[in-house]
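pinned: reference chain
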Amino acid sequence: MQATRIDRKFEQTRAENRAAFVSFVMAGDPDEATADAILAGLPAAGADVIELGMPFSDPMADGVAIQLAGQRALAAGMTLEKTLAMVARFRKQDDQTPIVLMGYYNPIYIYGVERFVEEAVNVGVDGLIVVDLPAEEDAELCLPALKAGLNFIRLTTPTTDNHRLETVLNNTSGFVYYVSMTGITGAEIKNRAAVGEAVQRIKSHTQLPVAVGFGIKTPEDAALIGKYADGVVVGSALVSAVETSLIEGKASANTASDVHKLVEALSQGAKRARS
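pinned: its C-alpha cells
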C-alpha cells in the first residue's frame, strides 16, 4: 500500500516531536448543516486526524454521550450515504487532513461492501475503524478495504495479551487504536501509568503509531497521555460539547464554535505533552 494521508500526518507529528490530536465527531449531529460546519472547522482548531462517526442504532462500545449523538443524527435523517457525502464536501476545501470513518459493520453490510469501499475511496476517506469486526473476519471488509487503498485500523485493549496482539496487528494499517480501559467510551482513566506501559508493549510488536482513546476529557489528560502515545483521541467530550450547546434540542449559534474551542484547548494539551 502506498503512503496515505494518515501515514504522512503521523510522519509530520513525529518530526515535530508531538502527539497527533485525533478528534471524533458524529456525522449529522445535531443536523447535517451544523455537522458540516463542525467538520470543516476541526483542522484549523487543531485536529490532525478526524474520526467521523457513522451513526448506528445499536452501538456496543459507545457510552451515553456518543449513543445520544448517534440518536440525534439518525433522528435528523443522517444515513451512511449522507455521511460519505459529508466527506466529499469536506474534501472540496481540505485535501490534507486524514478522515477515518468509525462505527459498526451492519450499516456497511446493508449498504454493500463493494459499493461502500469504492465510494469511500472516491470521496476521500482514508481509513476505517469497524469495532465489531474481529480479525478472524478480515475477508468481510478489511481485505477489500486494504486492496482499495484504505487503512484499516484496529482496536486493542488492556485485555489484549501478546498472543492475541499478533492476530490483531495482522492487516492493521495507519495506526493502532489503544482503548485505555475496559468498558465504554466516556469513563475515567484510572491508571495513566498503565497506559504508558501498554503503549510501549504494543510498540514492541509493531512499527505503526499507537493512538490512545477513551477517558481523555481535559487538556491535562491530553498532555499526560501525549507523553506516551503517538496520538491522543477525544470523542465523548466533543459530542458532549455539542449536546450542551443545544437549545430545545436544536443547534444554537454557538454549537460549532463550542466544539472548535474545546478542540483547540485539547489539542494544545496534546502538543505540550513533550515540551
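why pinned: The first helix runs from residue 5 to 15. The first strand starts at residue 20 and ends at 26.
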